[in-house]
Amino acid sequence: xxxxxxxxxxxxLIFSQEIPEVSFGRIERIENFQSQFVTPRTIDVWLPExxxxxxxxxxxxxxxxxxxxxxxxxxxxxxxEVDEVLAKLHAExxxxxxIVVGIxxxxxxxHSDYFPQKAFELLSKKQQDSIYSLERSPGVKYFNGSVTSDxxxxxxVQELKPxxxxxxxxxxxxxxxxxxxSSMGGLISMYAIxxxxxxxxxxxxxxxxxxxxxxxxxxxxxxxFYRYLEKHLPNPKEHRIYFDFGTxxxxxxxxxxxxxxxxxxxxxxxxxxxxxxxxxxxENHSEMAWQxxxxxxxxxxxxx
Length: 304
Prior knowledge:
two-stranded antiparallel ribbon; Rossmann fold; alpha/beta
């Protein structure tokens, strides 16, 4: 567990400003994107090999954008290899045409940016203060300031999406707009589709970090998430949501919490047509594990 904590601290850091090398397609970078809502950050837009302005593409917004493509540039020498997964699925005619907008995390602000704010506000003031005081490693707190994920979503919806919609040949409706991430990125993806159901039609929440911190015992956070979902899950007739988890390292905490979420999904009317939760026995909490199973959420969300 100490190794996982150390790794997640490292994953918050920004190690390289070079454009990642990809095996398929190309990346166009928006450097130092200025926002009135969040700290400046890099945006990497992946375009497929045959990208053309004569047709329209769906859009996938992915968090932790510095971990998506090039393992030579990441802190742990692992990457999602998104370009390779999408190229294979496209060649097999399993998915619609899509571009990917990789949003780099804000480094020290990652936990504050990604923690669902309205769920946090369901906690008592005493609980909030206690969580704010916790350290993820000696001398390093989970939160660098207050939870600000509502502002992070405003940045995505009010600033970034209009830029993407105006610059690229994309469908702009929710039916063609998706959001995805892992761990804390899974939480903010869940939060995005709940807060902006008219913007996002699908969400992939991979190894979703339901504990919010690195312990489950005496932790009020998961219950706050359940309460939030009971009130804010979007209409299952118009949305698709994917969850998954492994059983090793940090993912070993997730199964009982995910089962609680699954019960809420059923209660709110979700079924096999619009919701999928998968368990991956023996898989850990890492980009390599997520890369191996990334085709499942991709096909589920924007399969042909």
